[in-house]
Design goal:
Elements (H helix, E strand, L loop, with lengths): L7 E4 L16 H4 L7 H12 L7 E5 L9 H9 L2 H5 L3 E7 L6 H9 L3 E5 L19 H13 L4 E7 L7 H11 L4 E5 L14 H16 L7 H14 L4 H4 L8 E2 L4 E3 L19 E2 L5 H5 L6 H16 L3 H4 L4 H8 L8 H18 L2
Parallel strand pairs: 1-2, 1-7, 2-3, 3-4, 4-5, 5-6
Antiparallel strand pairs: 7-8, 8-9
Helix pairs in contact: 8-15
The protein binds iron/sulfur cluster (SF4).
Length: 366
Protein backbone atom coordinates (compact mmCIF):
# COMPACT_ATOMS: atom_id res chain seq x y z
CA UNK A 1 0.00 0.00 0.00
CA UNK A 2 2.94 2.37 0.39
CA UNK A 3 4.86 3.44 -2.71
CA UNK A 4 8.56 2.54 -2.87
CA UNK A 5 9.31 5.90 -4.52
CA UNK A 6 8.47 9.45 -3.52
CA UNK A 7 7.21 12.25 -5.74
CA UNK A 8 7.91 15.01 -3.29
CA UNK A 9 10.24 15.55 -0.37
CA UNK A 10 9.72 18.24 2.24
CA UNK A 11 12.73 20.01 3.73
CA UNK A 12 12.99 22.22 6.77
CA UNK A 13 15.80 24.70 5.98
CA UNK A 14 15.26 26.42 9.34
CA UNK A 15 13.10 26.05 12.43
CA UNK A 16 12.77 29.83 12.80
CA UNK A 17 9.62 31.75 11.89
CA UNK A 18 9.12 35.51 11.98
CA UNK A 19 5.37 35.10 12.58
CA UNK A 20 3.36 33.61 15.44
CA UNK A 21 0.11 32.55 13.76
CA UNK A 22 -2.43 31.60 16.39
CA UNK A 23 -3.22 28.24 14.77
CA UNK A 24 0.40 27.13 14.18
CA UNK A 25 1.03 23.45 15.01
CA UNK A 26 4.79 23.89 15.65
CA UNK A 27 6.04 24.31 19.23
CA UNK A 28 6.84 27.96 20.14
CA UNK A 29 10.39 27.24 21.34
CA UNK A 30 11.26 25.79 17.91
CA UNK A 31 9.77 28.67 15.95
CA UNK A 32 11.72 31.18 18.06
CA UNK A 33 15.08 29.45 17.52
CA UNK A 34 17.21 29.71 14.40
CA UNK A 35 18.48 26.20 13.69
CA UNK A 36 19.49 25.99 10.04
CA UNK A 37 20.00 22.88 7.96
CA UNK A 38 23.72 22.22 7.37
CA UNK A 39 24.82 22.01 3.72
CA UNK A 40 25.85 18.38 4.31
CA UNK A 41 22.21 17.40 4.87
CA UNK A 42 21.15 18.92 1.54
CA UNK A 43 24.08 17.22 -0.21
CA UNK A 44 23.24 13.85 1.34
CA UNK A 45 19.60 14.20 0.35
CA UNK A 46 20.51 15.15 -3.22
CA UNK A 47 22.75 12.07 -3.43
CA UNK A 48 19.81 9.93 -2.26
CA UNK A 49 17.42 11.40 -4.84
CA UNK A 50 20.09 10.78 -7.47
CA UNK A 51 19.81 7.02 -6.83
CA UNK A 52 16.03 7.04 -7.34
CA UNK A 53 15.06 6.09 -10.86
CA UNK A 54 11.99 8.24 -11.55
CA UNK A 55 10.48 9.32 -14.83
CA UNK A 56 8.99 12.47 -13.27
CA UNK A 57 10.76 15.30 -11.47
CA UNK A 58 10.71 15.14 -7.66
CA UNK A 59 9.28 18.23 -5.95
CA UNK A 60 11.79 19.51 -3.38
CA UNK A 61 9.52 21.52 -1.10
CA UNK A 62 11.19 24.03 1.23
CA UNK A 63 8.91 24.43 4.24
CA UNK A 64 9.51 25.90 7.67
CA UNK A 65 9.47 27.51 10.13
CA UNK A 66 9.48 30.30 7.61
CA UNK A 67 11.96 29.23 4.92
CA UNK A 68 12.87 32.81 3.99
CA UNK A 69 14.22 33.51 7.48
CA UNK A 70 17.12 31.30 6.36
CA UNK A 71 20.08 33.55 5.59
CA UNK A 72 19.98 34.01 1.81
CA UNK A 73 23.58 33.03 1.23
CA UNK A 74 23.02 29.85 3.23
CA UNK A 75 19.76 29.07 1.39
CA UNK A 76 21.63 29.47 -1.90
CA UNK A 77 24.26 26.97 -0.72
CA UNK A 78 21.49 24.50 0.22
CA UNK A 79 19.80 24.88 -3.15
CA UNK A 80 23.11 24.59 -5.01
CA UNK A 81 23.42 21.03 -3.70
CA UNK A 82 20.54 20.12 -6.03
CA UNK A 83 21.79 21.96 -9.13
CA UNK A 84 23.03 18.91 -11.07
CA UNK A 85 19.59 17.29 -10.56
CA UNK A 86 17.67 20.47 -11.39
CA UNK A 87 19.64 21.04 -14.60
CA UNK A 88 18.62 17.54 -15.70
CA UNK A 89 14.97 18.33 -14.79
CA UNK A 90 15.01 15.59 -12.15
CA UNK A 91 13.91 17.89 -9.35
CA UNK A 92 12.07 21.18 -9.14
CA UNK A 93 12.11 23.55 -6.20
CA UNK A 94 8.95 24.67 -4.39
CA UNK A 95 8.70 26.97 -1.39
CA UNK A 96 5.80 27.58 0.97
CA UNK A 97 6.22 31.01 2.50
CA UNK A 98 4.28 33.56 4.52
CA UNK A 99 5.55 36.09 1.91
CA UNK A 100 6.36 38.80 4.47
CA UNK A 101 10.09 38.74 3.65
CA UNK A 102 9.81 38.54 -0.15
CA UNK A 103 11.77 41.35 -1.78
CA UNK A 104 13.48 41.89 -5.13
CA UNK A 105 16.49 39.81 -4.09
CA UNK A 106 14.31 36.81 -3.15
CA UNK A 107 12.42 37.18 -6.43
CA UNK A 108 15.73 37.05 -8.34
CA UNK A 109 16.61 33.94 -6.33
CA UNK A 110 13.27 32.27 -7.16
CA UNK A 111 13.71 33.10 -10.83
CA UNK A 112 17.29 31.86 -10.99
CA UNK A 113 16.38 28.46 -9.53
CA UNK A 114 12.92 28.26 -11.13
CA UNK A 115 11.00 27.99 -7.86
CA UNK A 116 7.27 27.28 -7.63
CA UNK A 117 6.07 29.68 -4.95
CA UNK A 118 3.21 28.99 -2.56
CA UNK A 119 2.00 31.82 -0.32
CA UNK A 120 0.13 31.36 2.95
CA UNK A 121 -2.57 34.02 3.25
CA UNK A 122 -6.02 33.71 4.80
CA UNK A 123 -7.89 36.40 2.87
CA UNK A 124 -8.24 40.18 3.15
CA UNK A 125 -6.89 41.98 6.23
CA UNK A 126 -10.02 41.35 8.32
CA UNK A 127 -9.86 37.61 7.58
CA UNK A 128 -6.10 37.41 8.10
CA UNK A 129 -6.05 38.27 11.80
CA UNK A 130 -4.68 34.89 12.93
CA UNK A 131 -1.46 35.68 11.06
CA UNK A 132 0.44 37.98 13.41
CA UNK A 133 4.08 38.57 14.32
CA UNK A 134 5.68 37.96 17.71
CA UNK A 135 4.52 41.44 18.84
CA UNK A 136 0.96 40.48 17.88
CA UNK A 137 0.90 42.91 14.94
CA UNK A 138 -1.09 41.76 11.90
CA UNK A 139 1.05 40.53 9.00
CA UNK A 140 -1.42 41.41 6.24
CA UNK A 141 0.25 44.49 4.79
CA UNK A 142 3.64 42.73 4.76
CA UNK A 143 2.15 39.70 3.02
CA UNK A 144 0.53 41.86 0.36
CA UNK A 145 3.78 43.79 -0.16
CA UNK A 146 5.60 40.48 -0.68
CA UNK A 147 2.98 39.39 -3.20
CA UNK A 148 3.33 42.68 -5.07
CA UNK A 149 7.06 41.90 -5.49
CA UNK A 150 6.15 38.51 -7.00
CA UNK A 151 3.74 40.18 -9.40
CA UNK A 152 6.31 42.84 -10.37
CA UNK A 153 8.78 40.08 -11.25
CA UNK A 154 6.18 38.06 -13.17
CA UNK A 155 6.49 35.11 -10.76
CA UNK A 156 3.41 32.87 -10.66
CA UNK A 157 2.26 31.78 -7.24
CA UNK A 158 -0.40 29.64 -5.60
CA UNK A 159 -2.06 30.34 -2.25
CA UNK A 160 -3.03 28.34 0.80
CA UNK A 161 -5.76 29.77 3.00
CA UNK A 162 -6.61 28.48 6.47
CA UNK A 163 -10.36 28.89 6.96
CA UNK A 164 -11.14 29.53 10.63
CA UNK A 165 -14.31 29.49 12.73
CA UNK A 166 -14.47 33.25 12.09
CA UNK A 167 -14.16 33.08 8.29
CA UNK A 168 -16.04 29.87 7.41
CA UNK A 169 -19.32 31.81 7.36
CA UNK A 170 -17.95 34.37 4.87
CA UNK A 171 -17.24 32.29 1.76
CA UNK A 172 -17.96 35.12 -0.69
CA UNK A 173 -15.49 37.43 1.09
CA UNK A 174 -12.72 34.83 0.74
CA UNK A 175 -13.62 33.80 -2.80
CA UNK A 176 -13.84 37.46 -3.94
CA UNK A 177 -10.43 38.10 -2.43
CA UNK A 178 -8.73 35.12 -4.05
CA UNK A 179 -10.35 35.82 -7.41
CA UNK A 180 -8.69 39.26 -7.31
CA UNK A 181 -5.35 38.17 -5.88
CA UNK A 182 -3.88 36.79 -9.07
CA UNK A 183 -2.87 33.42 -7.59
CA UNK A 184 -2.83 30.47 -10.02
CA UNK A 185 -4.90 28.47 -7.55
CA UNK A 186 -5.91 28.41 -3.91
CA UNK A 187 -6.19 25.56 -1.47
CA UNK A 188 -8.59 25.98 1.43
CA UNK A 189 -7.52 24.22 4.64
CA UNK A 190 -10.38 24.15 7.10
CA UNK A 191 -8.53 24.80 10.36
CA UNK A 192 -7.25 21.56 11.87
CA UNK A 193 -6.52 20.67 15.45
CA UNK A 194 -3.00 19.28 15.43
CA UNK A 195 0.35 19.59 17.14
CA UNK A 196 0.52 22.64 19.37
CA UNK A 197 -2.81 23.88 17.97
CA UNK A 198 -5.29 21.97 20.10
CA UNK A 199 -7.49 24.56 21.82
CA UNK A 200 -9.20 26.42 18.99
CA UNK A 201 -12.85 27.05 18.36
CA UNK A 202 -14.92 24.20 16.90
CA UNK A 203 -16.16 24.66 13.32
CA UNK A 204 -19.74 23.64 12.57
CA UNK A 205 -19.89 21.00 9.76
CA UNK A 206 -23.04 22.70 8.40
CA UNK A 207 -21.01 25.86 7.86
CA UNK A 208 -18.30 23.82 6.14
CA UNK A 209 -20.81 22.31 3.71
CA UNK A 210 -22.28 25.76 2.99
CA UNK A 211 -18.74 27.04 2.29
CA UNK A 212 -18.03 24.28 -0.24
CA UNK A 213 -21.52 24.63 -1.74
CA UNK A 214 -20.91 28.37 -2.32
CA UNK A 215 -17.57 27.56 -3.93
CA UNK A 216 -19.20 25.10 -6.37
CA UNK A 217 -21.96 27.63 -7.12
CA UNK A 218 -19.37 30.21 -8.10
CA UNK A 219 -17.42 27.77 -10.26
CA UNK A 220 -20.71 26.82 -11.91
CA UNK A 221 -21.39 30.51 -12.54
CA UNK A 222 -18.11 30.95 -14.40
CA UNK A 223 -15.57 31.87 -11.72
CA UNK A 224 -12.08 31.42 -13.14
CA UNK A 225 -10.57 30.81 -9.69
CA UNK A 226 -8.89 27.41 -9.49
CA UNK A 227 -9.54 25.76 -6.13
CA UNK A 228 -7.39 22.75 -5.23
CA UNK A 229 -10.23 20.86 -3.52
CA UNK A 230 -12.65 21.36 -6.41
CA UNK A 231 -10.00 20.35 -8.96
CA UNK A 232 -9.34 17.13 -7.09
CA UNK A 233 -12.99 16.14 -6.69
CA UNK A 234 -13.95 17.08 -10.26
CA UNK A 235 -10.85 15.24 -11.52
CA UNK A 236 -11.92 12.15 -9.59
CA UNK A 237 -15.44 12.31 -11.05
CA UNK A 238 -14.05 12.77 -14.56
CA UNK A 239 -11.95 9.63 -14.08
CA UNK A 240 -14.96 7.69 -12.80
CA UNK A 241 -17.06 8.79 -15.79
CA UNK A 242 -14.36 7.83 -18.28
CA UNK A 243 -13.79 4.38 -16.77
CA UNK A 244 -10.50 5.22 -15.06
CA UNK A 245 -11.63 4.77 -11.46
CA UNK A 246 -9.02 2.01 -11.08
CA UNK A 247 -6.34 4.75 -10.96
CA UNK A 248 -7.76 5.76 -7.61
CA UNK A 249 -8.52 2.23 -6.41
CA UNK A 250 -4.97 1.02 -6.98
CA UNK A 251 -3.09 4.19 -5.97
CA UNK A 252 -0.24 3.60 -3.53
CA UNK A 253 0.36 5.89 -0.58
CA UNK A 254 3.20 8.36 -1.26
CA UNK A 255 5.58 8.22 1.74
CA UNK A 256 6.06 12.04 1.56
CA UNK A 257 9.41 12.01 3.39
CA UNK A 258 10.11 15.11 5.47
CA UNK A 259 13.70 15.99 6.34
CA UNK A 260 14.40 18.03 9.47
CA UNK A 261 17.24 20.52 9.81
CA UNK A 262 19.46 17.79 11.33
CA UNK A 263 18.70 15.26 8.57
CA UNK A 264 16.11 13.21 10.51
CA UNK A 265 13.44 11.61 8.31
CA UNK A 266 9.75 11.19 9.15
CA UNK A 267 7.16 9.96 6.69
CA UNK A 268 3.44 10.33 5.89
CA UNK A 269 2.91 13.78 7.47
CA UNK A 270 5.38 16.66 7.90
CA UNK A 271 3.48 17.60 11.07
CA UNK A 272 5.02 14.55 12.79
CA UNK A 273 8.52 16.03 12.56
CA UNK A 274 9.76 17.04 16.01
CA UNK A 275 6.85 15.37 17.86
CA UNK A 276 8.06 13.42 20.87
CA UNK A 277 6.68 9.93 21.42
CA UNK A 278 8.97 7.21 22.79
CA UNK A 279 6.61 4.42 21.65
CA UNK A 280 7.08 5.54 18.02
CA UNK A 281 10.79 6.53 18.33
CA UNK A 282 9.69 10.15 17.80
CA UNK A 283 8.46 9.02 14.33
CA UNK A 284 12.05 9.15 12.98
CA UNK A 285 12.96 6.38 10.52
CA UNK A 286 16.59 7.38 10.07
CA UNK A 287 18.92 10.22 9.16
CA UNK A 288 20.15 11.11 5.68
CA UNK A 289 23.66 11.77 7.04
CA UNK A 290 23.94 8.06 7.92
CA UNK A 291 21.99 6.39 5.11
CA UNK A 292 20.56 7.37 1.75
CA UNK A 293 16.90 8.31 1.76
CA UNK A 294 15.71 5.44 -0.49
CA UNK A 295 17.39 2.97 1.91
CA UNK A 296 15.68 4.60 4.90
CA UNK A 297 12.32 4.39 3.11
CA UNK A 298 12.63 0.62 2.60
CA UNK A 299 11.97 0.39 6.36
CA UNK A 300 8.74 2.39 6.14
CA UNK A 301 6.35 -0.56 5.63
CA UNK A 302 7.82 -2.24 8.74
CA UNK A 303 7.77 0.84 10.98
CA UNK A 304 5.21 0.73 13.78
CA UNK A 305 3.35 3.97 13.08
CA UNK A 306 3.31 3.38 9.32
CA UNK A 307 1.90 -0.13 9.84
CA UNK A 308 -0.72 1.27 12.19
CA UNK A 309 -1.61 4.00 9.70
CA UNK A 310 -1.95 1.42 6.93
CA UNK A 311 -4.25 -0.55 9.22
CA UNK A 312 -6.34 2.60 9.70
CA UNK A 313 -6.46 3.14 5.93
CA UNK A 314 -7.56 -0.48 5.53
CA UNK A 315 -10.39 0.14 8.02
CA UNK A 316 -11.37 3.21 5.99
CA UNK A 317 -11.39 1.11 2.82
CA UNK A 318 -13.75 -1.42 4.42
CA UNK A 319 -16.14 0.99 6.09
CA UNK A 320 -16.23 4.38 4.40
CA UNK A 321 -18.22 5.29 1.31
CA UNK A 322 -15.81 8.17 0.61
CA UNK A 323 -12.70 6.00 0.59
CA UNK A 324 -11.83 5.86 -3.11
CA UNK A 325 -11.85 9.64 -3.37
CA UNK A 326 -10.30 10.29 0.05
CA UNK A 327 -7.71 7.47 0.07
CA UNK A 328 -7.91 7.09 3.84
CA UNK A 329 -7.05 10.47 5.33
CA UNK A 330 -3.96 12.03 6.83
CA UNK A 331 -1.82 10.23 9.41
CA UNK A 332 -1.16 13.38 11.45
CA UNK A 333 -4.85 14.27 11.77
CA UNK A 334 -5.71 10.78 12.98
CA UNK A 335 -2.87 10.85 15.49
CA UNK A 336 -3.43 14.37 16.82
CA UNK A 337 -7.21 14.07 17.00
CA UNK A 338 -7.46 10.58 18.50
CA UNK A 339 -3.99 9.68 19.81
CA UNK A 340 -3.74 6.72 17.43
CA UNK A 341 -3.42 5.85 13.76
CA UNK A 342 -5.64 2.76 13.71
CA UNK A 343 -8.81 4.71 13.26
CA UNK A 344 -11.06 6.07 10.53
CA UNK A 345 -13.12 9.24 10.69
CA UNK A 346 -11.69 12.54 11.97
CA UNK A 347 -12.92 16.11 12.01
CA UNK A 348 -10.37 16.81 9.30
CA UNK A 349 -11.75 14.20 6.91
CA UNK A 350 -15.35 15.17 7.62
CA UNK A 351 -14.60 18.81 6.77
CA UNK A 352 -12.10 18.41 3.95
CA UNK A 353 -13.50 15.34 2.18
CA UNK A 354 -16.96 14.27 3.28
CA UNK A 355 -18.59 17.72 3.43
CA UNK A 356 -16.94 18.61 0.12
CA UNK A 357 -18.52 15.58 -1.58
CA UNK A 358 -21.85 16.17 0.15
CA UNK A 359 -21.87 19.83 -0.93
CA UNK A 360 -21.42 18.85 -4.57
CA UNK A 361 -24.01 16.07 -4.23
CA UNK A 362 -26.47 18.53 -2.66
CA UNK A 363 -25.88 20.99 -5.48
CA UNK A 364 -26.39 18.29 -8.11
CA UNK A 365 -29.51 17.02 -6.30
CA UNK A 366 -28.09 13.54 -5.67
S1 LIG B 1 -13.36 10.25 4.67
FE1 LIG B 1 -12.45 9.76 6.68
S2 LIG B 1 -13.28 7.78 7.25
FE2 LIG B 1 -13.59 8.08 5.02
S3 LIG B 1 -11.80 7.20 4.00
FE3 LIG B 1 -11.36 9.33 4.39
S4 LIG B 1 -10.27 9.35 6.35
FE4 LIG B 1 -11.33 7.39 6.20
Amino acid sequence: MIAPHFHSVILQPTTLCNLNCSYCYLPVHERKTRTEMPIEVAQALAAGIDTQNMSEAVDVVWHGGEPLTTRRKHFRDLVEAFEPLRRESRIRHCVQTNATLIDDAWCDFFTQYDFRVGVSIDGPAAANLSRVDWSNRPASSRVERGISHLRAHGIDFTAICVVTAQTITHPHTLLDFFEGLGAKSVGFNIEELEGANDTRQHIDPAHVRRFWHTMFDRIDNGSTLRVREADRLLGYLADVRSGRKDRWETALLDPIPTIGTNGDVVVLSPELLGVKNAHYDDFVLGNVLSEQLPTILTRAPHTTYVREHLDGVHQCRRTCEFFTFCQGGQASNKYFETGRFTTTETTYCRNAKQELVRALGEKMGV
